[in-house]
Design a protein that fits this description.
Elements (H helix, E strand, L loop, with lengths): L1 E4 L4 H13 L1 H4 L6 E4 L17 E4 L7 H9 L4 E4 L9 H7 L2 E3 L6 H16 L2 H9 L17 E5 L3 H12 L3 E5 L11 E3 L2 H7 L2 E4 L13 H6 L4 E5 L8 H9 L3 E6 L15 H6 L1 H6 L4 E3 L8 H19 L7 E2 L2
Helix pairs in contact: 1-13, 5-7
This protein binds 1,4-dihydronicotinamide adenine dinucleotide (NAI).
Length: about 325
């Protein structure tokens, strides 16, 4: 099976090449898998490069709308291997029409994201980003660095699926009382997590961490109204999707001194590539740049998933998806319209 791998980063190539050598089912398979890596992302301009391949491997950033799917179909592509969980960038109906299969990686390492959420919570609370810069400038004073103990405080987790559950376990390990809001209860957590309504979680949490997906119901779940319901001095963390938080309202909340700290791995402007063009004019109007001007805000660039273990898990699941497709097997990782 020949796979054209779009939007290749050096770490993608390393993990996939390594999995091609070490993943046992590949070693014992009769289906030879060959990957060609290219730097361009998949979109209507680059789809024709897939001529002569059986499959394409794409990412959540790829544009797999109607036009791209039409071209992939013309070029004989039979399967799209998504090396991520998300698939809202694909025209599923068009794929269905042509019988193009889509396989994804639903979960790779929930702990990777949950550990990063806790790292952001700790860093924002104890001002580690500020402390790091101060010490580098030979300023060893502690002014502006005071935080609070997480021990015996309340962690509120919104969304207790794979990542939220891992975050609950971490917070429990810190000696925190863990409360949660979800539309479904996760039975695995019943011994140490108490489910409450969203207003109760907002009102009682000292650390509030978002782990629900972005849907119509969760869009701007953090807004001025819900911010006002939160405890003064709360630490807010979002590693899920930027649009869960209304950025303008968050800025207002920070100005109201609602938050002890804010840690974001995702932000609303992420998909607009605001920081690719670093012109002053763009930065002046960027809400992310405004957020960064506050000393108690820590932002990372969607790196929650970025651990060696998670990358290997992504590579292995994607290759397993390719093998399952080649063997004509049904797969739980199948995406349908
Ligand atoms: P999951 O599907 O295992 O869990 C999501 C949970 O949210 C489920 O328990 C679901 O019932 C709950 N939920 C759905 N609607 C809700 C609502 N209206 N209110 C409260 N809870 C609701 O997903 P998983 O794997 O835990 O991922 C969570 C999110 O993390 C993803 O949607 C994704 O946006 C984000 N993510 C971030 C990464 C990063 O690198 N920062 C990497 C991977 C995922």
């Amino acid at each position: 099976m020949k796979i054209l791998f779009y939007d290749t980063k050096s770490y993608d190539q390393e993990s996939f090449d390594s999995a091609l050598k070490s993943y046992e089912p590949i070693k014992h398979s009769d289906t030879p898998i060959e990957i060609e890596y290219i730097k361009s992302d998949l979109d209507p301009r680059t789809a024709a490069l897939a001529d002569g391949f059986d499959a394409v491997c794409a990412f959540v950033s790829s544009d797999i709308g109607t036009e791209t799917v039409n071209i992939l179909h013309d070029k004989g592509i039979r399967v799209i291997l998504m090396r991520c969980a998300g698939f809202n960038n694909i025209d599923l109906n068009q794929c269905k029409k042509y019988g193009i299969r889509i396989l994804r990686v639903p979960g790779y390492s929930p702990e990777a994201v949950a550990e990063h959420a806790m790292a952001l919570a700790l860093a924002a609370n104890r001002r580690l980003h500020k402390a790091y810069n101060k010490v580098r400038e030979n300023d060893f004073s502690l002014s502006g660095l005071m935080g609070f103990n997480f021990y015996q405080k309340t962690a509120g987790i919104v969304g207790t699926g794979k990542i939220g559950a891992a975050m609950c376990r971490i917070c429990h390990g810190f000696g925190m009382k863990v409360i949660a809001y979800d539309v479904y209860k996760n039975e695995e957590l019943k011994d140490f997590v108490e489910y409450k309504t969203l207003p109760e979680v907002l009102a009682q949490s000292d650390l509030l961490s978002l782990h629900c997906p972005l849907t119509n119901d969760t869009y701007h779940i953090v807004n001025l109204d819900t911010i006002k319901q939160m405890k003064d001095g709360v630490v807010l963390v979002n590693t899920s999707r930027g649009a869960l938080v209304d950025t303008a309202d968050l800025i207002e909340g920070i100005r109201m001194r609602k938050f002890a700290g804010v840690g974001l791995d995702v932000y609303e402007e992420e998909t607009d590539n605001v920081f690719e063009d670093r012109s002053d004019e763009i930065l002046e109007h960027s809400t992310t740049a405004r957020l960064l001007s506050f000393p108690n805000v820590m932002i990372t660039s969607h790196q929650g998933f970025f651990t060696g273990e998670a990358l290997m898990a992504i590579a292995e699941t994607t290759l397993q998806n390719a093998l399952d497709f080649a063997a004509g097997k049904d797969s739980p990782n199948n995406v349908t319209a």
